[in-house]
Amino acid sequence: MNIVVCVKQIPDPANPYSLDPETHYLNRPHEQVLDDTDRYGVEVGLQLAAVDEGTVTLVSMGPAGNMQGVRQALAMGADKAIHIDDAGLKGSGALTTARILAAAIQQTGFDLVVAGTESTDGYTGVVPQQLAELLGVPALTFAKKVDVDGSTITINQQTATGYNVVTSELPAVVSVTAGVVEPRYPTFKGIMAAKSKPVETYSASDLGITDTSSGQSTVSVTDATEREAGEKIEDDGEGHLRIVEKLQELKVV
Amino acid sequence: MAGMDVMIPDLFELDQKLSTEETLIRDTVRDFVNDKFLPIVADHYEAGTFPMDLIAQVADMGLLGMHLEGYGCAGTSGLAYGVASRELERGDTGLRSLVSVQGSLAMFPIWKWGSEEQKQEWLPRMAAGEVIGCFGLTEPDHGSDPSSMKTTARRDGDDWIINGSKLWITNGTIAQVAIVWAQTDNGIRGFIVPTDTPGFEAREIKQKMSLRASATAALFFDDLRIPESLRLPDAIGIGAPLGCLTEARFGITFGVIGSAIACFEAARSYMGQREQFGRSLASFQLSQQKFADMLTDISNASLQSFRLAEMKAEGRATAVHVSMVKRHNVRAAIDTARTARSMLGANGISLEYPVIRHMMNLESVLTYEGTEEVHTLVLGQAVTGISAFRG
After folding, report:
1. pLDDT tens digits, A204-252
2. Which has the closest alpha carbon to A140: A129, A152, A126, A125?
3. ipTM here
4. CA nearest A196 in B: which residue?
5. In terms of domains, do B188 and B272 share one?
6. Quick one: which of B388, B312, B362 has its CA closest to B144?
7. Which of A185, A197, A199 is best to mutate for the B interface (most B CBs within 10 A)?
8. What tens digit of pLDDT does each residue of B223-254 get?
9. Of A107, B18, B100, B185, whose CA is between 20 and 30 Å from B47?
10. Does residue A65 lie within any of the structural domains?
11. DSSP-based three-state secondary structure for B204
C-alpha cells in the first residue's frame, strides 16, 4: 500500500510564539520541530505499511529551515519525503495549503492519505477534509482507530459521546486524533539513516500551481482574554461540602 | 516534541552547537524520560528497584553502546552520547548508570580489545538489550588502587580459573555477562564471564541510601572456569580497564549536568510559587544569590563538557582533561543539589520532588569512576610532574 502522511514543521512550542506585526504571520525560526500531532499520523502510516510492505511518503509544506521536523518523521521510519518550500506560499490559508498538498500527493500517487486532525500552530482543522475533496476521495475524519482490510478502510470516529464506525473503499483520506496509536520513539539508527533518505523539494509552480493567493488575509489579531481566576476553597474540614455544592450548581453531579 | 515543557538553563546556547541528528537524539531521550521514566522513578527509588521493563525500550531507541561503530550499534558522535547521558540523568543517575555501564564499561572493552568472534557474538545482543553487562574492577579492599587487585586468573590447560571478589558493581545482579579484571602471571587481563558460569555469584547490596533505583552487587568467583576464548586478547595491563573508565567518565561529565538541571528547575519552580512574609520566595536576595551560583555552576559545567566533547572528537582529550571535568562537574552538581535541597525547605527531603534523590545519588557519583580526591591528585600531578599517590 502506498501511504502518504501529511506532516508539518512548527516552531518549538517550548519557546514563546511571535507574530509579524505587519502581516500577522507566525515568525518561523530556522529550527522547527515536527508537530506533535503528526507523530500519530506517521505511526498509523508506519503500522499500516508494515502489514504489506507498503511505503510511507511524507508530504510537507512550509519553510525548510534545517528540516529537523521532517527528519524526525523520517527517523521514525518513513521512506521518503516530498517538501514544498516556496516563499510565495507564506501566510497561505488552509485551502491554498490543501491545493498544494493535493497536487503533490496526486503527483506521487497514493492509496491512503493520513493526516493529524489539525496543526498545533494554525489550528484551522479543515485541511484533511479539503484535501479529500480536491483529491476526489472520501474523508474519514477524527479516527481514534484505523483498520485496513484489503481495499476497505474502517475507522472509529471520535464523537462527543462515543464513536461512529465509518467505512469506505480506498483510496481515501483519514484524519487521526492524538491517542489513535502510541507513536514510537525514533531510533538512533533511524536518526542517523534519515540523513540519507530521499527528500524531493518543489516550488508551487513545479506542481503546476501558479495562483498561490490565499484569498484571505488576517485583518487584526487580539490576545485572548485571560481566564478569570477560579474560586479558592480553603479546607476547614468542610471543604468537600462546598466542592459538592459547586459541582451541583454547575450541574456536573 | 513532547519535551517542550522542559526548561534548560543554557545561557551560552551550547545546545545550538548540536547537529540536527544530535538534537533529535537529545529530544528523543528527553521525551522518553518525561513520558516513561519520571512518572515512576520515585516509587522505584523508594522500593530500591530498577524499572526492568524499560530496558527493552532503552535498547530499541539505540542507547546501549550508542557511540560505538558497527555490531548493531548506532555509531553516534561522542557529543550525542553526552547529551543523551545528560537527559537520562535528568531522570535519575540510576538510569544513566545502566546505560553508561552497558555501553562504556561492558561493550566498549569488547569493542576495543575483543577478538572479531567475541565482537560478533556479544555486541549485537548487548546493543539489543538481550544481554546486560557489568564491569568488575573494584574490590572490597582495592578501590582507588585497582592495580593491587586480589582477584586472580590462573591458566589451566586451555582454560582460566578465576578466584576472588568484586564490590560495588552496577548491574551486577541483572547482568548476563561480566567483564572481570584479574591478576595473571603476566599482569592484569580482562575476561568475558557469562554470569551463569558455575562458581559465579552476584549478591545485591542492600541498605543503600544512594543510587536506590539501580542494581548494585558484590560478585564472587569460586574456582570459576572459563576458556581462553573468553579472554579479551588485546586488553593488556591496568591501562585497559582505566581506558574504559575514561570513556564512561566522559558520559558522566554530561550526566551530572542533568541532575543539576533537574534540581535547579525544581528550585526555580518552587521558589516562584511559594510565598512567605507575603512575598514570593524568589524575590528574596538570598534566593537570588543561590540561583546565580547554581546557574554559574551549571554553565561552567556545560562549557567544560562541550569543549571536552570537541577535543574528544579531535582525538586530543586526555585523562587529565577528563579528570578535570569529572571532578569539576560532579562538585558543581552536588553543590547545586544541596542548595536546591535547602531552598525547598521541608519539601526538599520528599521524593515528591526530584531534589533529594539527585542529591543522594550524587554522593555515589562523587566517589565512583575515580574519587574526587584521586582526580584532584591527577591534576596535581599534571601541574607539578610529581605523583602524590603512585609510588
Report:
1. 999 999 888 877 788 888 888 888 888 888 888 888 898 898 888 888 7
2. A129
3. 0.88
4. B21
5. no
6. B388
7. A185
8. 999 999 999 999 999 999 999 999 899 999 99
9. B100
10. yes
11. strand
